[in-house]
Write a structure and sequence with these properties.
alpha+beta; elongated; 6-stranded antiparallel β-barrel; 28% helix; 552 residues; 14 helices; two-stranded antiparallel ribbon
């Protein structure tokens, strides 16, 4: 049991030799900024062995005995139960944002994702180079360490994106900063000024602005690109409120990437040559760095889940750095990012013609009614069909959204798909006539599918439908993803597996009721395939299963 939650303990703490304030805060289960504020410590690096620290009392909202919940207007109210602290008029998924209490007696943030609330966002940006914002965002920038230390680049370095000279924790490159400490003071003030607009937008969306992960993400994005941060609060926060994943590391990465799109869905990230691949790699790296810093500084309640298949690593790519708003306003209109006033698909699509021109050739005008199959499978899950072009239900809907659509279908049926590192790989190579299949792996994959279907869960599988030109999946063979939903035997005695295909807007063609949406067992290889041509619209091509993506 921590000192702060034990009323029988001394309410003071004696500083020992080699203690640091961050270590003390972690030991006492108290955020460092709160401990410093409670003891009027201006410089967290200047504490003296033998001195006494007053431990904050348990009425600050972190202790369950406080019985408080967070209102959307920022005030706190007494409550006898740990119910939803948001205005009931706000229609948001309760399971993603309800207030709850852990077994250790710690009140979790109203935006439930395993991270505590920052009690005072103003204090978070106070303290110059020792502010929590400077350390946490500075970790993302690569200039600080999660413990509060400094890297070699803190004193000054050349920006890899625009060759300007940066200083301080935030990589500030504007005027008026002769030292890195002065640079940190300037950008802390900028974050302080930008925070009220973020707080208003978060509350309007039904999110808790004090949530440590959400607030840190906003501050980090504002540090990297103030324009992207405006899109984040004006356009992406309402989407986050409706995201079935909740406010998680994965959903925040998607929101960050989408913040670099203009109101037509076009990516505008000059520092990354407008490449989504490079931008996403950078945003994933930065969000991972924030998580490491928050975890190290005691904001993690211990209830977070690391996304499957993710690896924290530094990605050496150019990063746009912060500039004053006045400087940002003078940037070229060719790279301007404007807040969107309506929801976009997240990727510009050509829909005026007959087919799209991306990774998944699709007839966007296909409205032909496909008759449902007369024989239904003996084993059938209740899995809804979702189009990968449905921007209401799929993040970054478009030609390359098949996996996101497939996982959305699986999630709606109660299955959570694991990362690529857990996959069952059937295909070992591809050629002009199809793929080469490992028979043993194919049998393992079919057995797993049978087991999941019997338990009522669908299974996402990758398929190959053309030679080469794959879309960069883990095996370099998979071109597309579909969802296996059932199993049966046809009139000829052949075993088949039904599947939902997201690569169309026509539900009757994409749903598992379409008699063409069936995999059959290839007796020669043991693999699963759907006969068809190797060219034309994807929903009618030959499919060969390349990998099975297990459920958690």
């Amino acid at each position: 049991m921590s000192v702060r939650n034990n009323p029988g303990r001394d309410p003071n703490y004696s500083i020992r030799r080699r203690d640091t304030l961050s270590k003390i805060a972690q030991r006492l289960n108290v955020p460092m900024d709160e401990l410093a504020r409670h003891n009027n410590i201006r410089d967290v690096n200047k504490i003296r062995a033998g001195a006494k620290l007053r431990i904050p009392p348990p009425r600050d909202g972190f202790d369950a005995s406080a019985q408080t919940t967070q209102r959307t207007d920022g005030t706190r109210r007494r409550s006898s139960t740990s119910n939803d602290g948001f205005d009931p008029r706000v229609s948001t998924p309760a399971d993603a944002r309800r207030t709850s209490t852990t077994t250790a007696g710690t009140t979790v943030s109203g935006t439930q994702n395993g991270y505590r609330n920052i009690q005072d966002l103003g204090a978070f940006t106070r303290g110059g180079s020792n502010s929590e914002a400077a350390i946490i965002v500075g970790t993302s920038e690569g200039n600080r360490t999660p413990s509060g230390g400094f890297t070699a680049s803190y004193g000054g370095h050349t920006d890899p994106g625009n060759a300007a000279h940066n200083r301080g924790s935030f990589s500030y490159q504007g005027p008026g900063a002769s030292t890195p400490q002065r640079a940190d003071e300037i950008w802390n003030r900028e974050l302080t000024n930008a925070t009220p607009a973020y707080e208003r937008a978060a509350r309007a969306a039904g999110l808790d602005p004090n949530n440590a992960l959400l607030a840190s993400t906003f501050m980090d994005l504002h540090t990297q690109s103030p324009r992207a941060a405006r899109n984040f609060i004006n356009r992406e926060l309402p989407r986050l409120a409706q995201d079935p994943r909740g406010v998680t590391r994965e959903s925040l990465v998607d929101a960050r990437v989408n913040s670099y799109r203009n109101d037509r869905g076009e990516l505008r990230a000059a520092g990354f040559d407008h490449s989504e691949r490079r931008l996403r790699a950078d945003q994933t790296r930065r969000e991972g760095a924030l998580v490491r810093a928050l975890d190290a500084r005691g904001y993690n309640t211990g209830n977070t889940q690391r996304p499957s298949g993710t690896v924290d690593r530094d990605v050496p790519i150019p990063t746009p750095r912060p500039r004053r708003e006045a400087d940002v306003a003078r940037t070229s209109r060719t790279t301007e990012e404007r807040p969107a006033t309506e929801r976009t698909t997240g990727r510009r699509q050509q829909t005026s013609g007959r087919t799209t021109e991306g990774a998944t050739p699709t007839d966007m005008n296909d409205t032909a009614r496909v008759s449902a199959s007369g024989d239904r499978p003996a084993t059938q899950t209740r899995t809804p069909w979702i189009s990968q072009y449905d921007s209401r239900r799929v993040v970054d809907a478009g030609d390359k959204a098949c996996f996101r659509a497939a996982t959305a279908m699986a999630r709606a049926a109660g299955a959570r798909v694991t990362g690529p590192g857990d996959r069952i790989q059937l295909a070992t190579a591809e050629g002009p006539n199809g793929i080469t299949v490992n028979r043993q792996q194919a049998e393992r994959g079919r057995n797993y599918i049978d087991q999941q279907l019997a338990a009522g869960r669908p299974v996402v599988v990758g398929v190959n439908h053309r030679e080469g030109r794959n879309v960069g999946n883990a095996d370099r063979i998979t071109d597309h993803f579909v969802v296996i939903t059932g199993k049966g035997v046809d009139a000829q005695g052949r075993t088949f597996y039904t599947f939902n295909d997201p690569a169309t807007r026509n539900q009757s063609r994409g749903a598992d009721t379409n008699p063409n949406n069936r995999f059959y067992v290839d007796e020669r290889t043991g693999g699963l395939s759907r006969p068809g041509p190797r060219t034309g619209n994807v929903v009618q091509r030959q499919f060969e299963v390349t990998m099975v993506r297990p459920n958690a």
